[in-house]
Amino acid sequence: xxxxxxxxxxxxxxxxxxPKWFSLLExxxxxxxxxxxxxxxxxDAYHKLKKVTDAKIxxxxxxxxxxxxxxxxxxxxxxxxxxxxxxxxxxxNLFGGSVFALSTERHRWxxxxxxxxxxxxxxxxxxxxxxxxxxxxxxxxxxDEATKEFIVNTPTxxxxxxxxxxxxxxxxxxxxxGQTIVKGKNEGVNAVLVRIRDDKMDAMPGVRIVDxxxxxxxxxVDNGALFFxxxxxxxxxxxxxYSDVSEGGVFKSxxxxxxxxxxxxxxxxxxxxxxxxxLCMGATRACLYIGIKYAMQRLGVGASxxxxxxxxxxxxxxxxxLPLLARSVSLNTAxxxxxxxxxxxxxxxxxxxxxxxxDKCLVVWNLNAVAVTCRERSGGQGFLACNRFGExxxxxxxxxxxxxxxxxxxxxxxxxxMGNVGAKKSGLPKMGMCPKNQxxxxxxxxxxxxxxxxxxxxxxxxxxSLVATLDQRCKVEKANQFEVLQYEVSDNVQxxxxxxxxxxxxxxxxxxxxxxKNADTKKVFATIFTxxxxxxxxxxxxxxxxxxxxxxxxxKAFINSLPTQVKALSFHTKDVIESxxxxxxxxxxxxxGDYVGYNQEPHFGEVVNAxx
Amino acid sequence: xxxxxxxxxxxxxxxxxxPKWFSLLExxxxxxxxxxxxxxxxxDAYHKLKKVTDAKIxxxxxxxxxxxxxxxxxxxxxxxxxxxxxxxxxxxNLFGGSVFALSTERHRWxxxxxxxxxxxxxxxxxxxxxxxxxxxxxxxxxxDEATKEFIVNTPTxxxxxxxxxxxxxxxxxxxxxGQTIVKGKNEGVNAVLVRIRDDKMDAMPGVRIVDxxxxxxxxxVDNGALFFxxxxxxxxxxxxxYSDVSEGGVFKSxxxxxxxxxxxxxxxxxxxxxxxxxLCMGATRACLYIGIKYAMQRLGVGASxxxxxxxxxxxxxxxxxLPLLARSVSLNTAxxxxxxxxxxxxxxxxxxxxxxxxDKCLVVWNLNAVAVTCRERSGGQGFLACNRFGExxxxxxxxxxxxxxxxxxxxxxxxxxMGNVGAKKSGLPKMGMCPKNQxxxxxxxxxxxxxxxxxxxxxxxxxxSLVATLDQRCKVEKANQFEVLQYEVSDNVQxxxxxxxxxxxxxxxxxxxxxxKNADTKKVFATIFTxxxxxxxxxxxxxxxxxxxxxxxxxKAFINSLPTQVKALSFHTKDVIESxxxxxxxxxxxxxGDYVGYNQEPHFGEVVNAxx
Lengths: 612, 612
Hints:
CATH topology of one domain in chain A: Butyryl-CoA Dehydrogenase, subunit A, domain 2
Pfam families (chains A, B): ACOX (PF01756), ACOX_C_alpha1 (PF22924), Acyl-CoA_dh_M (PF02770)
Radius of gyration of chain A: 25 Å
Structural class of chain A: alpha+beta
Family (chains A, B): Belongs to the acyl-CoA oxidase family.
InterPro entries (chains A, B): ACOX_C_alpha1, Acyl-CoA_Oxase/DH_mid-dom, Acyl-CoA_Oxase/DH_mid-dom_sf, Acyl-CoA_oxidase, Acyl-CoA_oxidase_C, AcylCo_DH-like_C, AcylCoA_DH/oxidase_NM_dom_sf
Oligomer: homodimer
Mean pLDDT of chain A: 96
Largest interface: A-B, 102 and 102 residues
Cofactor (chains A, B): FAD
Protein name (chains A, B): Acyl-coenzyme A oxidase
CATH class of one domain in chain A: Mainly Beta
Number of helices of chain A: 21
């Protein structure tokens, strides 16, 4: 295959940016340190981020001109340091991106300061009691006409701003969300800029910042809980793109429905989901590179009884790792397409939210599977911190929850899906080669068109069954729709969102396949995408058989085809992992290099002074 | 249900031991600390272990009289401190248990010292290059007739003893495994006791101990790499129960086959697997307790739009957590039975290895699933170290690899299975209520007898297909059996081992069901075991449909039955989790108690000074 073409397609951005990143990551600051105090971990993460911003390789203004550039930054940082990547996503997307989206002329002074970290921001949305249902948050901004200020308060324990990244060590500003009270009326959730530290980095009066301490991972991220007591903020610090308060205390908004204002001001969560997906996609590629590279050099027992056989050669190893490689490359392909639709959504505006949500869910859960499996298949070496699987796994966990719990986002996807179909903005997928009544006659399912039709069939079936149940329960039996959704049809909702995401991903893969130039590259991609789709159909085979769209004989043959498909991919694995754009020089994992040599000298689990 | 009866059955040991453990764990030493240096984490783990041994609640001699007592200790330590539990399993099982099993009269002085930690041991089996295929290890003991000593060497980088628990901080002795060279002949792998530190805890001459540093978790365990250079050990330090060297240098062994000696001296790995399973089973119970208890008090949005509904009420939460609860209680039931068969194997000697291996595999992987899901369903709170999911997850990862990689053990299970059937020591399971030709007519699969027959059908089918393939490839086509097993039939092998383990677990569950006294308790157990088996059949539904033992209509009805089954269990969940014998007073997780109150005062992620 043409490794360059493969790598460029996986890169998902202008490939000319790649050498800049590769050279930036040569800086020794990206060498990880492990046994260091918590505070040093945080400073380390900050200094890595500072190295990136000093290189002027990205800007918050990219959201206007080249949002993909920001996602690319996340993909690299997810590989080299998930903590620094998390600090970055808060600075550039949640904080910076929100300021970009919600600000007006009067806030422009912030942009260069965000880019060079002279303003380090945090994003104070989540409250202890409102991690879900944030629209009901208790933080208030009361407008004081006399002084033309907002008075910010977190009036209860439950309303402390919780999990606030960058707050403990580095932030001097915060974008705070709260119920906006003007002339005694709650005008809904808005955002104000609050200075939280002075020039000496002491907390401002009325601001209390509590360190949240040790987490299961990403300890380079300084998460804190923030309390505000009568903190006064100038009127102009309100982010007033969509709503504003006049000096005299008149509230105006282009959004009349008060709860809707919440969604308007928190829309950065949307690009945030692509940022999280990007961090995790990067980590996935690194994880697979490390796990497979190690398997290719680690020796296990061979037919002679001697330790002379790379464990990669075992079918066990290949059957565990290669379906995940196929799924990862396929989701990467879909992720790239979704990034570009986000950047240029013309004609797809109504689908962007669904796409960003499902992209995060599928990519993050896939990282979890990849990290767990690579760790397990790398045995003891996989358990050492310096071989990195642990931190990628922790990133997956952070990703599942951050910017919206995956399972809750799946519900959001389905609601939008039903809404779009109901409003005729979009329809259900159309089965192509094989309409439903043809499928049961297909003897060989291992064909991309057949597989795509199977995925579509499942999606359509799940959609229809959900709509039928909701109609019956809510329209006929007059049950409360919220209750039916929450208490009766959860599996249907979750499965439908997944079916939508996977079908769409496969379609994006096929689109790319058609435009791949080199015939060998095309073949490798086809092998990968076929395995991706087959693995999905295998998982849901009970569904297909019980719906009689697959015959028993075809199912048996299909089950047997999987190891053959894995074997076909196994011959290309080395080329594939070397084309994942992993900055190998900045990964510093003993097991991708001469791990025996690494263990010749004492390194105490560290890599700083090791030759790798 | 009768919570006492339920709890006693889950406890799996004499329930009179429970209050002793509960009261021991009241000691404040079991309060965890998080943001402390690596060395303090290790000392903490040691002091917890010391507290346990000071209570004289267990002894290495229990392996002779009451091995279950040792497993019970592991179950408690898995809940309160996986690091201390890991140090304990090395001291009492791998080191102490090996000494118990391989020693003769001349080593008896060690037993009381192992019990009171005046001898702290390590188990030097694994080498850097021989984590798998340990029988080919490179460490040597050369017998020197002149001085009547063994000379111990790790001659190469690859032969350094790797991952050695207790070695960096606390051990003064090691049980070292190596190729035993007597009069120039390699007599295979044996074990010698080596003093590695003097009374001042300085390393003995020729012994070098390198700290392995930070791992993804269990950092309270002091893992090191050990190098031996011409270390002299008295002849009497050879563990000589099965093999011995006379003063004059004559090697004698009751095992004539040299490679077999390896399995004889490493047999503690067998009880070790039950120890690992016990640590993980304990952790599983605690994990479920924490995750479900939190869900029952954490409020999310309700029909009114207010945050007034415990997230436990959501079907999403129940469908995610309760099948895992069912599987965990069922595997716990099987685990208890296997512990007791290990203690009294009469008539089952040929199955003990299979049982111990599969118990570890199923229990450990289940802990991984439980920890991942509880963490995810607990959102951000689940990510804080003090809520413990992270460390339980890390324990699962350690467990997958320790005492034999799970996937490799699955191969061992299948080899023993085929050997036992071949030697007519045991047969294939017999289908009971519903022989194969009856199954397709069963309209309702939700019946324990039907489910058991389905599990048996799959096991028998997988067994026969594996044997048929091996016969064809090896006997007819003369292929090398090792190569066929490693390169061609991996999925069949892995699926068969799993099918065997799950079918056996369900049978053990049914046995217990028959002897459960209280009718309500029995009902709850039946609900749990049915969900456990249903979940398995659902996962493999494609297999059952393609083999035409389940009709399409039965399959559809069955898929729809799962949420109903979950709902049925949901009403008993509180009673069930409160009957898991979790020492709640020693878990110290803010989210099982008043987590809002915990967040009222700054605790910096710690629990030491918190009211919980």
